[in-house]
């Protein structure tokens, strides 16, 4: 269950789990169906107090590596731990309660041959393909093969009007030089931190394909309903801090 081969995997799937016993087995099965023999799935459990560790322990596949955190650190730090533990050249993010669409891995690997970050679309599991947007859109989707509108897309992130979901994203290993460590103030929206990096650097690829079916339930970390004014303003401030920090890190790497 803890593959320790000396050959570095081509693709690492990075998953964070917490109280996911009800759904994680189905998600892992959909991921393993996509992985090749030299790929890996890294699962970091955030000190679950349900049966999640026991469910994970039943997974009998050498491509799966499981890390059990003994202290709850929150989903952002748990995803950071998974990214740090990953060994592949291509890193794809995965939530514990979704289901991958067949062909996702190959398509996203191809996308990351031309960019550092790829963002795809999602649909709902057992529900409609269209996901409503925050500004009254009936279908909130990424458009265009390559996200070449850097300024427009950065402004869209800051305004909360770009459907970047971590469960539908991936990065090249080289991007981790800038993305990690996550800044201490990043207590939510690690996916938007990654999206801002991709758009600021001009290395973001938009793939219009649906790559994951998202399961909506009461415990989703991403809210299904609009936030209150104070929470929305706090989120915008956090993203502005992300923008400043990414620019600082970019200058540091260049200089």
Sheet with the most strands? 8 strands, mixed
Question: Would you state the CATH class?
Answer: Alpha Beta
What is the count of structural domains?
Answer: 1
Question: What gyration radius follows from the Cα positions, in whole Å?
Answer: 17 Å
Q: Which superfamily, in CATH terms, is the homologous superfamily?
A: Spore Coat Polysaccharide Biosynthesis Protein SpsA, Chain A
How does this structure look, described?
- The protein contains eight helices and eight strands.
- The protein has an eight-stranded mixed β-sheet, sandwiched between helices.
- The chain is globular.
- The chain has one domain (about 10-255): Spore Coat Polysaccharide Biosynthesis Protein SpsA, Chain A (Alpha-Beta Complex).
- The chain has about 260 residues and is of the alpha/beta class.
- Helix 7 packs across helix 8.
- It has helices at about 25-30, 50-55, 75-85, 105-110, 150-160, 175-180, 190-200, 230-255, and strands spanning about 10-15, 40-45, 65-70, 90-95, 100, 115-125, 170, 205-215.
- The N and C termini lie far apart (about 45 Å).
Chain-wise SSE layout:
Blueprint lengths: L10 E7 L6 H9 L7 E7 L5 H6 L6 E6 L5 H11 L4 E5 L4 E2 L3 H8 L5 E8 L25 H9 L10 E4 L3 H4 L10 H11 L3 E11 L14 H26 L1
Parallel strand pairs: 1-2, 1-4, 2-3, 6-8
Antiparallel strand pairs: 4-7, 5-8, 6-7
